[in-house]
Task: structure prediction
Amino acid sequence: MMTAEDKKILERFPLLINSDIVYLDSAATTQKPAEVLKAVDDYYKTSNANPLRGLYELSVKATDIYEEARKKTADFINASSDEIVFTRNATESLNLIAYSYALNTLKPGDEVVVSIAEHHSNMLPWQFACKKTGAVLRYAECTKEGLLTPNMLEKLLTDKTKIVAIAQVSNVFGCENDIQSFVSLVHEKGAVFVCDGAQSVPHMKVDVRALGVDFMAFSGHKMYAPMGIGVLYTKKEILENMDPFLYGGEMIEYVTTEGATYAEVPHKFEAGTVNAGGAAGLSKAIDFINDIGFDYIEKRESYLSELMMTELRKIPHVNIIGDDNPSNHHGIVTFTVDDVHPHDIAAILDSDKIAVRAGHHCAQPLLKYLGVMSTARASMAVYNNSDDVMRFAESVKSLRKRLGYN
Amino acid sequence: MASTFYNEVLTDHNINPEHKHSLPEANYTLEGVNPSCGDDIILNLRIEDGIIKDGSYEGSGCAISQASADMMLDLILGKTIEEAEKLSEIFLRMIKGSVSEVELESLEEASILQDISHMPARVKCAVLGWHTLDEIINKSKE
Ligand SMILES: Cc1ncc(COP(=O)(O)O)c(C=O)c1O
Result:
């Protein structure tokens, strides 16, 4: 039964309150609270002008909103404002590192290390950078539960290692990596550590200073903000020495026909008109998260993961992928059902108005490594409740029968 | 909605396929893969004098891809390659949503997949076997 507390959170999400969809695809993108939608709307209704450009009051207002969003984002992960570059999403943030840092740093024979469990967005940019520079890409393997220990990573590190890129939370297993230990090992070798925070930043307190990471990439749209605004954190001393990613307006101090002097960081990395409306939404999404609090978010998501795993375990022929411990799932439960293709799982659940992801989750090398072709994934956020989980479990229970199996 | 595809005809073809086996006497074998979801169908045909004398499929995939291939073989076995080509053309047109009642009937059980045209993500599953068939037919004409 939905509690008063469940209802109070749900009511903040217009899409969910106005439909009977059980939304279990939050790892792909979260639904948006009304206050975030309103912040975007307000920006365009009251403050819209091209930020950073106009010499009139309205443009100053737009600039302030944009820069306040940067400050709020910086505080949120314990960075400083000039270490925050706004991008479109985590993918663009990771590409920015590959183009502006890796291409200028890597030499033939150098090594880049990623884990086999990485999302394609934290794998393809490194494949590209290695190919361009003659560096070698090495893959750290994980256990069948998705775990990568500092020990396993250490074995792959050599004096040639220059970049190590690993997600804090896996989008397939939901498990958390021990980033702090990874960073110590990587720094001992004189290499830099890139953290993909797309699945961690929305679900736990992330402190880039405490972790010691050199780069952290994440997407606004997976943390209750609109699509089209993403974040790249880079340690200031590294960012200042990086070349621009894109060239154009708003990233230069002086231009002549011969060349240009670039603007200060972080503006140097934000060529062209920025997404100020998106930044206003991200700022409000951070308020929303802070208002609810990570203690509560973690407790709730852990409870829901546990309930979901307990219910799924009762159903014959259902196999859960990942750690046995529900608190190491961060709302992500990936599973298969014997004889039922994940696309059929998603289609049948859809007919019961339950939205789950099916396929390779942009992690084809991982699924190949695990020996499965594709899987189904249910992923939760703070607005989900036990009713959602029970409706989902009921539907999963009926799957084999509806496909004609006993 | 999606559930309508999962009727008895479809689930039966998926679970108890008539044509899913190897075919050592095949003179044409081709693998069709749908990389986005990993559906994988190996179509085996024995074509003699322009007639599809025997055929089977192997591989793995979702219920729609498997049942569609099985129903396709039901239809084309014993037919000339021109007839098979025609059926394939009708099937692909049905998936795109433009087919007459008479044409629909000619597809027999395979016509249950008509509504899949509303689910773009599943169209590839339904047509995988048929596309593979087209490629074999083109090859056999060379
Ligand atoms: C771990 C991880 N990294 C990166 C991404 C890419 O995020 P985006 O598509 O927002 O760039 C995702 C999203 O699916 C993800 O789960």
